[in-house]
Amino acid sequence: MFALVLYVKTLNGKENRVIMKLTGKDFRKGFVKIIVDDPDDLWYLSHIITPGDIITGKTTRKIKIADKQVKKTITLQIKAGKLLLESHSLRILGKVTQGPDDIPIGSHHTISVQVGDNLKIEKESWLSYQKQKLEDASSQKVSFLICIFDREEAIIALTKKRGFNILAHLKGKVSKKRMKQESKAFYPEIIKSIEEYNQRHNPQAIVIASPVFYKEDLFKLITSPWKKKVALANCSSVTERALSEVIKRPEVQQVLQHSRLLKETILVDELLAGIKKNGLVAYGFKEVKNAVNQSAVSKLLVADSFIDKLRENDDFEKLDSLMKMVDQHTGNIHIISTDHDAGKQLKHLGGIAALLRFKI
Length: 360
Description:
By secondary structure, this protein is of the alpha+beta class. It folds into 3 domains: 136 residues, Pelota, domain A (SH3 type barrels); 114 residues, eRF1 domain 2 (Nucleotidyltransferase, domain 5, 2-Layer Sandwich), CATH 3.30.420.60; 96 residues, CATH 3.30.1330.30. The strands form 4 sheets. It has a 7-stranded antiparallel beta sheet, with helices on one face. A 5-stranded mixed beta sheet has the order 12-11-10-13-14, sandwiched between helices. The protein has a 4-stranded mixed beta sheet with strand order 15-18-16-17, with helices on both faces. A hairpin with a 5-residue loop joins strand 1 and strand 2. The radius of gyration is 24 Å and the shape is globular. The protein starts with a strand and ends with a strand.
């Protein structure tokens, strides 16, 4: 049984976790029924649903009653074609397979999926990576607050299932003449911000990172109960890129061990190390396809932007067939988000790469 986690704000503004169950699942019969409860779920769905799937959901259409146009909600079943992921919705374009009598079978229609919607997805067969994506989307959302700072500025971010959400970028008013004294005056402002975001998001852990000894100085000033869930780490700078640096620090990996962000970063690091050593890797569609044809792929890494590009060009089928072959050869498939630095590096390598079982 899978579970979805819904964050509900109470009167004091704090977010509490409310568990919601999937409403139905039978892979032998080829279907799942879900409730979308978070904008991130839309991203997962965009990589679970593929052309040809049968989607059942609610949509609205305008009908004429007397002299007025009114919106009516209807339940519709379509055969999925194109998918368009937007900031607050996933639009599934397809042909109607079942619906009200006044909507012709085979006509084109769109189901727009938003947070709170119920959806049924039917496939001829579920690939292992699609099952994994469904499990990732429906597993408990674990978030971490990360603060990187020096004597002049601080960045506070919250980990998401697929990257970071920058919450604040603080600037301290520090003159060079009085840097030592004024930088310490900046610390209470940082602690106050961490306090506010801890109350608002209730993260599982808080990572505080800085160059040299600043983090220890700040840590000594914390008196709140959340101090016990703080992990300290080093960073070389205060930039958004440094956030990716921090999660790879050994002192932080223990804290973030169940984070999808960390897992994706480790996979891409393994790929980059293999490229540097001319090891067991392949990248670019042509090289990866050759490796797949020889059953050499252990792990297939695909950037989400690469999938989006193929769908836009109506060329997704070639990747879909490749992923099916990897699945049949018991390889693992990983869709890597380009919302973080590791995903961007994969994108620059052509958007697709593989870790190999043997040299080809």
